[in-house]
Write a structure and sequence with these properties.
Layout lengths: L12 E6 L4 H15 L4 E6 L10 H18 L6 E4 L7 H7 L4 E3 H12 L3 E6 L3 H11 L7 E7 L3 H6 L1 H17 L8 E5 L16 E3 H10 L8
Parallel strand pairs: 1-2, 1-3, 3-4, 5-6, 5-7, 7-8
């Protein structure tokens, strides 16, 4: 009698929703997620073609949230087991969750939940000066994580500019990390979160005197903590 091999369970499916219109940033996030998941997750990307080129101001944040909401009927087609909103400030996250049948992950929220779970001080490094007050406001809404936030370093550039000149962007990020570690000698550097899709793939190339994590890692950790029933 010929034996039939048991069917392999389907891989969980994660859809990356980029609320800006820069497809290269979507591709960079997908590339890094493949590395982080060792290809054990099926991935798909969706770029909001009517979104802003980059989200780095309150106005572009609102435009990105609106673009993600308009894209939702096309995104919510039953394929994904979860959706990752690939902008660190989580534009429109609450509205997407209200409309979704599956978990919607936000990188900033996931980072703060990770910091809270560890119970250690943390610092955010991000690109775009306007993000400083915006992320402070977001952190303040996460009332238990808020006391752990030691500070936010905002680089005088954007994730889009960084993707166009990765060598210069990497050097800028490394200087910020060196300054942060230098301000906390003796191994007292806070945990550091790289805040933005523009940092995708950079973490392994950087040096830091403490724990260094990016929003994609945090979002994956949040997803893994949820019960997952892969789609057929």
């Amino acid at each position: 009698m010929t034996q039939t091999a048991p069917a392999l369970p389907p891989r969980p499916r994660l859809l990356v929703l980029n609320p800006n219109r820069t497809a290269a940033m979507t591709d960079a996030v997908l590339h890094e997620l493949r590395r982080l998941t060792a290809s054990q997750v099926e991935l798909r990307g969706f770029t909001c073609e009517d979104g802003p080129p980059v989200i780095a101001t309150r106005e572009s944040f609102a435009a990105g949230a609106a673009a993600a909401a308009r894209a939702w009927p096309a995104v919510d087609d039953g394929w994904a087991d979860a959706v990752l909103l690939s902008c660190y400030g989580d534009p429109g996250l609450a509205a997407l969750r209200a409309a979704s049948r599956v978990p919607v992950l936000g990188m900033a929220e996931a980072s703060m939940l990770q910091a809270l779970a560890r119970g250690r001080p943390f610092h955010i490094v991000t690109a775009g000066k306007a993000w400083g007050p915006m992320l402070h406001e977001l952190a303040a809404r996460h009332t238990r994580a808020w006391p752990l936030l030691q500070g936010i370093t905002t680089l005088d550039t954007t994730g889009l500019a960084g993707s166009q000149n990765p060598a210069a962007f990497s050097a800028l990020v490394q200087r910020a990390l060196d300054d942060l570690a230098g301000a906390h000698p003796g191994g007292a550097a806070p945990d550091c979160m790289l805040g933005g899709a523009g940092f995708a793939g950079m973490r392994p190339t950087l040096r830091y005197g403490g724990l260094l994590e990016d929003g994609l890692q945090a979002a994956l950790a949040q997803w893994r903590a949820l019960p997952i029933t892969p789609s057929a």
